[in-house]
Structures are given as C-alpha cells and as structure tokens.
Aspartate carbamoyltransferase
Amino acid sequence: MPQTPAAPASSDLSGRALFPHRHLLSIADLKPWEIRFLLDEAEQWARANRGHARKHDDRLAGMTQINAFFENSTRTLLSFEIAGKRLGADVVNMAAATSSVKKGETLIDTAMTLNAMSADVIVIRHASSGAVALIADKVDCPVLNAGDGWHQHPTQALLDALTIRRRKGGFEGLVVAICGDVLHSRVARSNMLCLAALGAQVRAVAPPTLMPPQVEMLGATPFTRMDEGLEGADVVMMLRLQNERMDGAFIPSAREYHRLYGLTPERLAIAKPDALVMHPGPMNRGVEISSTVADHPDRSAITEQVEMGVAIRMACLDVLTRAARGVEGWA
Ligand code: ASP
C-alpha cells in the first residue's frame, strides 16, 4: 500500500509553491516529503498504465519535450519518450552521435541551441558529472537529469524507491544492500541519498577498490565482504561494473569478481528469505548477477523497475511543467 505523504512543514510552504523546484537535477535537492510526493504521483500513473489499453492523458499537449542524450541509453531514453508521449507532449530525441557535439560544439552552445527551439522541458544525459546542471542554468525551461557521469540519476532512484514501496510497503527500518561497483555508479549515489532520506538502512557493499571514500556521507554503511553486507538484507540491489568509467584495473578479472561479489542463489540465501532482487540494467549476466537470480519469478523485481520507470518519468514531467501550464498553486 502506498504511504500517504507526510504533511510538509509550514516552513516548507511559506511563500513558495508546493513543489519548489524548477529542475530535477539531484536527489540531494529533495526533502523526504518531496520524494514521497513524487512517488504518490507516480503511483497513480503506475495504476493507469496497467489498467487501460489507451494510455493517453494529454495534459502536456502542445508542449515540446527534447530528450538530449549525449551518452548511450536504452531504458531511460525509451521510458522518457513513452512517458512524454503518454502525456501528449511532442517528443523529440537528440542523439549525441548524430549531433553537432561530435563536431566540437561546446556544451553552452548546445544549451543555447536547445533553448532557441523553445522547448518546454528538456531531459539530458551526459557523461560528465555536473554537465546537466550547467545546461539547466542556461535554458528557460525545466531540465530533468537522466544521468550525469558518476554523479546522479535521480529518476532511477525514484523508480527504485517506488518499486520497493510497492513490494515492501514502506522504507522504515528496511535493510537495503547496494552491491557492486558503487564507486562509478550514479545509480548508487542517487539511491543511497534517496533511501536513507526515506528511512531505510542503506549498505554499500563493494570491494575496497570500488568503494567511494566517505560513503557514510551519502547515508550508507560500507561493507567490503559480500556475505556480511547481505546478512539480513530485505533488498539486494546489484550494480553493473561500469567499465567505461574505469581508468585502470579495479578488479582482477570478471570471473574472480563473480566468485567474490556475484549474486548467486547461494549468496542470495544469506539475505532475508523474501529479499527482493533489483538491478537498474543493463545487466551483465554471469558477472554481477547469475541468470537464476535475475530471472527468479518472485524475488526479482527487475522488469517491475522498468515498468515503474515510465510511471516515475510521467510524474516528474507532469510536476515540473505544472508552473508553465498555470496549474493552480504551482506558479
Ligand atoms: N543504466 C544505469 C545508468 O545509466 C546503470 C548502468 O549503466 O549500469 O547509470
């Protein structure tokens, strides 16, 4: 059952709109009630998406959504595109491989170009941490961060939180083990902040070479031994080895990594008997996760994560464009 959002403190509301953010750049910018509010909004879309053959709502009709992806994506790009289309926006995808970025255009010039097209909302993915915030600063419409370098992937953390809430009922006291290449993972950074803000006990489980320094600052307790990190976990979230971000050798070999940190049925047995298995994708089967675990019909929530991705992105696109649409109380 979805939780009702805690009423925002009056200090949160005084002199401001109910959702006081123009952009969605980082989970660190959101208060716990704002996260719960977005989850509740998405819950409605999750139900609507499952319930009807005709999924259009069209509240963004006449608005232009540009998806500017400077880094590869399958799930995130597709689900932002589906989300925008279900809300009736004119959705345009700009892939970096075919854009002027390849010809040496600067980020600021790209931002100015996107702005000149009078977009109403821009979704950006970029390989450099902070690049999305830089573009957000230069454009006149809301910007959603679809992943910037190692830094943040806020809609991934929100969709993961929604999946957990639907399966586990809430977050208070829930033990969530985030395992694998935590160092290079924006998914891990966003999730640690998000789940800790919602009251979960978050563990970062990684080899010493793949553990970020001061991970406690992000709300997680570090574990360098997989078995210890999994003990009593309610949720086991696996991460891909982000080879494209590795500069040097962080693990002896993929085989050795799987032996020590791969999620196999035997390892999963160390967690709680009903522990939920999650993975943001793309998965490297046989490296961080075995197929038996990934495809487990009851324990794996991996396809549900993808499903919740559409609902969360619909909620975020709706909420962030409300001011421009003049929705009461959002100016
Ligand atoms: N799809 C996620 C991301 O964009 C996770 C991954 O690539 O491993 O960060």
About this structure: The first helix runs from residue 10 to 13.
